[in-house]
Amino acid sequence: MKTHSIELISFNLCPFVQRSVITLKKKKIDFKITYIDLANKPDWFLKISPLGKVPVLRYEDEVIFESAIINEFLDEITGDALMPLEPLAKAKHRGWIEYASQVLIDQYLASTSTNQGDFDKHSANLNQKLIRLESEVSDQGFFNDDSFSLIDSAIAPLFTRMDILANRFNQKFLQGFPKLLALSKSLVDKDYVSDSVISNFEDVYVNYLKTNNAFIASHT
User: Fold this and answer.
1) Assigned CATH class of 87-218
2) Where do the domains of the chain lie?
3) Closest to 162 in 3D by CA, of 147, 151, 174, 154
4) What strand order describes the sheet that includes 56-59?
5) CA dist 112 to 27, 48, 98, 216, 219, Å?
6) CATH superfamily, region 6-76
7) What backbone torsions phi and psi does residue 12 show, to the nearest 5 degrees?
8) Which of 23, 99, 185, 216 maximizes the CB count within 10 A of its CB?
């Protein structure tokens, strides 16, 4: 769909950026994506990103930051809402979106750990959160029910990375979680999820882990 000028500032491996790309693609919003190197942040980026983090969304001459807020904004300026309108239901969705953020952080910490001790600690934290997610997720194709919501945008990047960790490093974090495995398959097969990362994402991600001496990359 045609909208105002929209630009998403990104880092090519960031799961939080991927959340917003999923929402943009799901809602068929025209946008431009600009990649930066987070290890060498441009001055122009630091001027517009209060926290120095991606994603940042430029909407005409305005700037919005933080993926959950960007996604709600994109949802609200378009039709076919992906968030409930009723205040309590919306608050509960926001809670699980924040929970998904913490799961992504645990997954990142586990996958980038450089020694057995840290890997075991972060994997245990991740597993505890997955246990809770398994008890919350629906069995109707999406997180909440049979329709895609912003919770699905928020959690899909986890599954993109879990697939690679399972296939390339035999790290099957989702083993024993049948509902999460089903949700993962449902989401990663969707075009708006599979097309939300760079074309060579798997190789870049694997190389990132190897270059940064990730424990799982040297013990498979």
Assistant:
1) mainly alpha
2) 6-76, 87-218
3) 174
4) 32-35, 6-10, 56-59, 62-65
5) 32, 29, 21, 8, 13
6) Glutaredoxin (3.40.30.10)
7) -70, -10
8) 23
Give per-residue burial for 117-149: e unless 16+ CB within 10 Å, then b.
Answer: eebeebbebbeebbeebbeebeeeebbbeeebb
* Side chain identity at residue 165, one-letter code: L
First-residue to last-residue Cα distance in the chain:
45
Copy the structure tokens of residue 69.
């807020």
Place of tokens 């994506």: 33
The reported pTM is: 0.96
Tens-level pLDDT at each residue, the chain (220 residues): 444 799 999 999 999 999 999 999 999 999 999 999 999 999 999 999 999 999 999 999 999 999 999 999 999 999 999 999 999 999 999 999 999 999 999 999 999 999 999 999 999 999 999 999 999 999 999 999 999 999 999 999 999 999 999 999 999 999 999 999 999 999 999 999 999 999 999 999 999 999 999 999 987 6
